Amino acid sequence: MKAINVIGLGYIGLPTALMFAKSGQKVVGTDYNKELVDKLNRGELTFEEEGIEDLFQAARKNDIEFTTQYQKTDLYILSVPTPFVRSSKKIDPVYVINVVNNVLDVCEKDAILILESTVSPGTMDNFVRPEVEKRGLVIGEDIHLVHAPERIIPGNMVYELEYNSRTIGADSMEIAERVKELYASFCKAEIVLTDIRSAEMSKVVENTFRDINIAFANELAQICRNDNMDVYEIIRIANRHPRVNILNPGPGVGGHCISVDPWFLVGDYPELTSLIHAARDINDAMPEFVRKRMLTIMKENNITSLEKVGLYGLAYKENVDDVRESPTLQLLTILEENMNPGVKVFDPHIRRKMVDGQCMDFEEFMKDLEMIVIMVGHDHIKEHLDRIKPLIIFDTKNVTGFDHAELL
Ligand code: SAJ
Known about the structure:
The protein is α/β, with parallel strands linked by helices. It is 41% helix and 12% strand. Strands 3-2-1-4-5-6-7-8 form an 8-stranded mixed beta sheet, sandwiched between helices. β9, α13 and β10 form a beta-alpha-beta unit. α8 crosses α10 and α12 packs across α13. Bound molecules: ligand SAJ. Ligand SAJ is lined by residues 118, 150-154, 206-207, 210, 214, 247-248, 250, 253-255, 257-258, 316-317.
């Protein structure tokens, strides 16, 4: 059996590689980060995720190895970062282009190259096909291009790998069917076949849909705050309507997906994306809304120094150890710009020191604290409600249920 070479062993590539190995495929995981590869080869995981330990053990019992080298084989899965350029809002395809070229250097004739990373619609046509054609290779004969965007949510990735429906975009149905069969080795849900552009667009649309809906909840929170209405009560009631399902307001939208992907559409279609752009702006402005609200609550309670205030949560959302685009980091940046740092920070899932004022221990964080701002609703804080009850609480995630807690 030939190996599947999974390129990029991050939040998506690693669980995907493990799932293929668990299901009996021969897998080689490649990453340019030697430290990460060495760690995986020692049997150590690189991030926290529900169920990933068991998956790792099951995969290691089968045929999987980790290396910095690309393999000569006939099947590649690419899962690399796809950031956006802040000034233009367009995708920066540099990682995709690099790994595609590294694959083209070694792959067998007739190999299938599956791109799992989320990309702006048109990336395959505009950036990947030219790299292949530059080499005189014929797409559909020498190499086959496929886009199979991932859909798994951090916090529930292992379950969703098996039970989420998937999309396979390919130039020919024959290749799409072959790739479908491959993913069906572990994916128990429907696998939909389409063309590459539709697969690219539908993935970006899914995350944009969620961003817009979160923005709606965040805008409602601001309207309600302005006139002293309870946004949570209003959403709870509105959601009893059979066709209404409003999401939860929060301190901002973090992570590397929802806060990034809608920009691809804004960057490529600036004249056609006023709603999408407005939603991004609303969500991006939430850390500033939290800062102002935090200062108001401090004033009302005669707290004069930020040193008596603690931000709980650095991760971008509950029960993960990923801080990319985290609302807390955004809030800290604004606090620094306003020349008033000194605030304490704690996150039980972040075990490396990342910011000034960060406590590595909950007790140290709680010492002399007068006010806590809950930025992330980790299970940990729900288990320590008695400890924080005596404090002034600003609960941006509405997780405490205390009458005296201030909400967004
Ligand atoms: N958030 C809110 N209110 C909500 C829901 C979320 O403020 O009601 C915030 C979260 O706190 C977080 C951010 O939004 O800061 C994003 O969190 P998320 O849980 O909504 O999504 P991600 O970014 O972890 O994962 C998303 C998922 N996409 C969709 O649900 C459409 C996931 O399925 C994708 O695979 C993933 O993006 C991805 O990799 O693209």
